[in-house]
Write a structure and sequence with these properties.
Length: about 130
């Protein structure tokens, strides 16, 4: 059985390399895609889900924002089991910073080039205060 793994945004799969996955399972790491301009999140999820072969049972594992992604993918392609690490299970668990972004719609007006390694590192510091 395959285990599809999605890391967090701005994090590579090194954060997950200490996890010992069962030897009899094939682990497939799914890389993040570059979003299309003005792409809705639901469309982005569909594109990410295209990498999953759902012709046979599989597991989904997500770390941080990857946890949110695998929960959304699970709605399109139900997995036998979904495991989330360091992530949220519902909107009620969103940070105040994320909620503020949703209310103000600021993330929608930022250019795609804004989301790079430098801003991701800055976000990881700022979010600790919210």
């Amino acid at each position: 059985m395959k285990i599809y793994v999605v890391s967090g945004l701005g994090a590579d799969f090194k954060v997950l390399e200490k996890i010992e996955f069962p030897k009899h399972h094939e682990v497939v790491f799914i890389d993040w895609l570059i979003p299309h301009q003005n792409e809705e999140f639901s469309d982005y999820v569909k594109r990410m889900a295209e990498k999953i072969d759902d012709s046979e049972p599989f597991y989904l594992v997500g770390y941080s924002f990857g946890g949110i992604m695998v929960q959304e993918i699970n709605r399109l392609k139900p997995a036998k089991k979904v495991v989330i690490l360091g992530s949220i299970k519902s909107d009620k668990e969103k940070s105040r910073l994320i909620k503020a972004g949703q209310i103000t719609k600021i993330p929608k007006v930022l250019p795609v080039t804004f989301f790079n390694e430098r801003t991701t590192n800055m976000y990881s510091v700022v979010r600790k205060f919210f």
